[in-house]
Amino acid sequence: MEPIIQKLSPENWKAFQEIRLKALRSDPLAFSSSYEEEIDRTEEFVKRKIESSWTYVAVLNNQFIGMVRVVFESGKQLKHMVSIVSLFVDPECRKKGIGLALVKKAIADIHDSSPVIKANLVVNVAQKPAIALFKKLGFTEVGISHKAVNINGVYYDHLLMEAIFKDKLR
Ligand SMILES: CC(C)(COP(=O)(O)OP(=O)(O)OC[C@H]1O[C@@H](n2cnc3c(N)ncnc32)[C@H](O)[C@@H]1OP(=O)(O)O)[C@@H](O)C(=O)NCCC(=O)NCCS
Asked: 4-119 — its CATH code?
């Protein structure tokens, strides 16, 4: 059975929080915040997170098995850019095209959103599958942020990647 990719609304905050905590436990290097920081997030906090972004989940048998978020800029001079964050697929469901389907759906919607001509992201250099996935979708490497994150006392570099929708440039 194929999972369905759907845009999440705040009423589903609890299931979203569950997959987020699962992601933080399973792949701590992939995220800039930790399980310990997020375990006690309130309903209000999680709902605000969902409302302030486009949050996509992959759903199979009523279970969330993957997620990705699109975060918008608020400043007038930055409205042409978004950030792709929090990509995760449940380890039991990997290598079946779900990560690709999530990011493709997010990109298709971003592409249709009128002011946006560019998607940015940062990814821990240790997350090789994610880097390969983003490259496959046309993201290019634009630099390294050294010692960008400190996870359990170890510094990691972040790879900066971007995709520009050239067909939307005048
Ligand atoms: C990155 C991640 C979301 C990929 O999810 P997935 O559903 O397994 O990925 P897909 O099956 O859609 O694979 C798409 C492409 O990604 C790349 N990829 C996926 N898994 C890979 C692996 N283990 N090794 C190398 N490349 C891999 C490949 O290019 C693949 O295309 P291919 O199947 O034609 O080779 C998943 O591994 C994950 O959740 N990782 C931990 C979290 C993370 O790193 N998030 C990034 C935050 S910025």
From this structure: 3.40.630.30
